[in-house]
Amino acid sequence: MPSSVILDLPRTTRAPGQARDALETLPAIDGSLLGDAKLLVSELVTNSVKYGGDGPVRLVVRAEDSGRVRIEVVDRGGGFVPVARDRPATEIGGWGLHLVETLTDRWGVYEGSTHVWFELSAKTPA
């Protein structure tokens, strides 16, 4: 049975941990996806806390029986256009969207907003 959660997180330094904890409450999330999902949620929620304007950060998670999970992080920031990382690999910070691009099956940003979504799918053994 699919499961989902919608959670409004306060814009505090505790928000990324609360988001990670919320992922563990969904039994439908395939265990092989949990580590990547937690990492990506941490990155996106941290960015929302730092740059997302006033108000809460919304986390929306939908886990499907098929092993697919879709996660959305929404804040009230002014929007942005995702760009490829162009800083040296030795520079700290700025890795969030690079990780999202690398680890997900699909991802995107709703134009003109700070509403980022991504999807992960459990891999079936060959």
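The above is record 1. Record 2 follows with the same two-line structure.
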Amino acid sequence: MRLFVALDIDPEIRERITAFRNQMRPHAPDVRWVGSESFHITLQFLGETRKLNEIRHALQSVKAAPIKLAYRGAGFFPNPKAPRVFWVGIEADEKLQHLVAAVAQALAPLGFERDAGPFTPHLTLARSGSGRPRPVPGERPASGLQRVHDALAKLPPPDFGTMTAHEFLLYQSHLSPAGPRYERLAAFALRRSSTGASEIP
């Protein structure tokens, strides 16, 4: 099973980001655009594993408060001059960083390690090449994303709205030639006192 932990986004914000993606899409037909049903904020990628029950049990121990998230702005990894990933920015207070740290701490005994460096929340809209922020040998920046950058420069900074996350989720990624499909396996409540998990049909 290919698993990851993430936050979902409210339908209204998803619709606004989808409209923005559709506005930018014609500028870069040469890159892979993310389907709106796949929009989420990845907290930790776990990869291929058979430890589903252990992971679910570990995440039940995570205690964290609801998180206010503002979706605004857009940018590129690794930088605007050599873009490979196009993303929407996410602003949050220290509660998001606390959740990321708590999830990492809960999963560490199972052998899962979070990527090194600070957690930078973002919502990926498009990828080119390997889709990694850092290039692999022989990989070049996407000219289409450079055109997206030029188009963005003529627009006011986008603002998609604010929401409060009351749960985080464990997802399974199903890979296929048509692109990945994400299945929710369990939801974990965010509240100050304690957390619990619920199965998702």
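The CA atoms of residues 62 and 105 lie 9 Å apart.
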